[in-house]
Write a structure and sequence with these properties.
Number of strands: 5
CATH architecture of the largest domain: 2-Layer Sandwich
Helix content: 55-70%
Number of domains: 2
Radius of gyration: 42 Å
Number of helices: 3
Structural class: alpha+beta
Largest sheet: 5 strands, antiparallel
Order of helices and strands: HHEEEHEE
CATH class of the largest domain: Alpha Beta
CATH superfamily of the largest domain: Ribosomal protein S6/Translation elongation factor EF1B
Length: about 180
């Protein structure tokens, strides 16, 4: 069957109209996306200066925090031996049945003797208990038998309160640097 020229013309016009409709739909969608992207870009450009200022403020805060950290670190010794010695002192006090009521330590310093470097800390220890137990505690410090760490103590002074059952012990601890 043969189609007439009118039918062909109608078919071509319909195909052309459908193609134009599809192209218009695609164009409208892309135009809507372009409008959304322009809105987003406008919003981003509006927020950008505030975000830049916020970042700069945060960088300033970070710089200040780092300076405070450095200042804080400078106040505290890197060495933690005095804390570790304190653990040993509490353990020795417990073994000798005395109560360690006060422990004061100085910042550790380094002392070099020959080729060996020692960490040197001064301590004031106040203990309470019976006189026999206090003497046992002082003896344990002098002999160093119960030390968990590689250190030795030199007892430089003892002040006892016989009626109160307490003693103040001044000592210097020499820790071996590893």
């Amino acid at each position: 069957m043969r189609l007439s020229k009118k039918v062909w013309l109608i078919v071509v016009i319909v195909i052309f109209a459908v193609a134009l409709g599809i192209l218009f739909s695609i164009y409208s969608g892309q135009n809507g996306e372009l409008a959304q992207l322009n809105d987003r870009m406008s919003n981003a450009q509006t927020l950008l200066p505030g975000l830049i200022n916020n970042r700069e403020a945060k960088e300033d805060e970070l710089t200040q925090a780092e300076l405070l950290l450095e200042a804080g670190q400078a106040q505290f010794p890197e060495s933690v031996e005095s804390i570790e010695y304190g653990d040993d002192l509490f353990e020795i006090a417990d073994d000798c049945n005395v109560g360690l009521t006060k422990l004061t330590a100085t910042k550790p310093t380094n002392k070099k003797v020959g080729t060996v470097t020692y960490s040197v800390s001064s301590f004031v220890v106040v203990v309470e208990g019976s006189i026999d137990n206090i003497l046992e505690f002082i003896y344990a410090l002098r002999t160093g038998d119960d030390f968990q760490l590689p250190w030795s103590a030199e007892v430089t002074g003892v002040k006892t309160n016989v009626s109160g059952g307490s003693a103040t012990v001044n000592l210097i601890i020499y820790g071996y640097k590893r």
